[in-house]
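Board notes, transcribed. Complex of a protein with shikimate-3-phosphate.
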Amino acid sequence: MNNLILIGFMGAGKTTAGKLLAREKKMRFLDTDERISSEQGREIRDIFAEDGEAYFRNLETELLERMQEDTAGAVISVGGGMPVRKRNRELLQSLGCVVYLSASKQTILGRVQGDKSRPLLSGDNLEKKVEQLLKDREAIYRLTAHVEVRTDGRSIHQVMKIIDQETRKYM
Ligand code: S3P
């Protein structure tokens, strides 16, 4: 399907770049976290706190499965943990062109500092948490994506332009 899917770590800029890109390309924009949160009628951090991470991960897979049926021609920004499940990787790839927005640990730390909305980064030792999760996930993101766009030192507008250029041959 001809969607453009943005994956990457928390703070990589998936939602912001995705919205800009969708506007530029006159495509619909969807964000899996926003969709899950609105369908559940509660914030992601409350889903984690009340029902646990596994419950949230099942909601993610179930949403991707529904998107196979009803989503085309959209820019889709997905939660940072989405590609960790093998089944989700297959579902993401079948939705369209997958773009990995990558960022260094330092860049991510600068962007997520003080953010209370992300349950996996709450509490002490933010740097250790980001380091460990990045180590666990970088290879997975690369395995899933058709294209990687580095975001370090680039404005969101520049990132959006590069995504547009790099994905034209896939669309
Ligand atoms: C998560 C990333 C979040 C959200 C949830 C879990 C993760 O989305 O889905 O807090 O596992 O990396 P963003 O990447 O949009 O912050």
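The chain is about 55% helix and 15% strand. Strands lie at 3-7, 28-31, 74-77, 96-102, 147-150.
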